[in-house]
Write a structure and sequence with these properties.
Number of helices: 8
Structural class: alpha+beta
Shape: globular
Largest sheet: 7 strands, mixed
Number of strands: 9
Radius of gyration: 19 Å
């Protein structure tokens, strides 16, 4: 079952409780559910610790969506004034820099890896064999040794790592730190990263545009509005 990280944007509510927030989330999701996903999880699933909280954020604030078993300083989302988006972006950028540096040191002297697009063209519709051949390259094997066995959804990061310079790879990670795979805006507009739908080009033109839009949209919301991550399944 595919899992999609969806960020749902909600306006402020004068007397928010855990019940009213859950109700508002479910109503928002019900408007866009058809054709997009079959089920969803709000306080469970893969993304309950996506957002770090600012220092001193109250653990029992009803405007935060948290898992009972989650980390005390993280949540699935909530009121923007309590979410530390800058820290999330900085952490993902630092992780990308560390990965790029470790991979660069380990592959020094190796011949350049062929881009993903070359294998996609060679194998056509047989994406599984294309991915196996792509990852069979020495530089990609080194990456697997550093990060562990990759999943199918990590292909885009692998392709970016071998095609971008350090600054570009770090910028890419920062851009993708906050948004999920899809964004549900206040007016029920639903947008999705085209790479998640396997409909982007080799240089991630559509994906980059999606993340730029999602970041700008979220950053422009008032501080008392809410952004909550939901694990949508289909």
């Amino acid at each position: 079952m595919a899992s999609r990280h969806t960020l749902v944007c909600l306006p402020a509510h004068a007397a928010e409780t855990a019940y009213t927030l859950d109700t508002r989330l479910r109503r928002a999701l019900s408007k866009v559910r058809g054709g997009h996903f079959g089920s969803y999880q709000i306080t469970q699933g893969r993304y309950t610790s996506h957002f770090p909280l600012i220092s001193g954020a109250p653990a029992d604030d009803p405007r935060l969506v948290r898992s009972a078993s989650g980390q005390p300083d993280r949540c699935a989302g909530g009121v923007l004034s309590l979410l530390d988006l800058a820290a999330l972006r900085d952490r993902r950028a630092a992780e990308a820099a560390d990965l790029y540096d470790a991979w660069s040191r380990a592959t020094e002297g190796m011949p350049p890896a062929q881009p993903w697009a070359a294998f996609a063209e060679q194998w056509g519709s047989d994406s599984f064999r294309a991915l196996l051949a792509f990852r069979d390259q020495p530089q990609l094997k080194v990456l697997a040794e550093i990060k562990g066995k990759p999943g199918a959804r990590q292909r885009d990061e692998e392709a970016a790592l071998i095609s971008l310079d350090r600054a570009g790879f770090v910028d890419r990670a920062r851009r993708r730190a906050v948004p999920g795979n899809s964004l549900r805006e206040l007016d029920d507009t639903w947008t999705t990263d085209p790479a998640w739908l396997n409909s982007d080009d080799a240089v991630e033109t559509g994906s980059t545009a999606y993340y730029d839009h999602a970041n700008a949209y979220i950053d422009a919301l008032p501080a008392d509005f809410l952004v909550v991550g939901v694990d949508c399944r289909r």
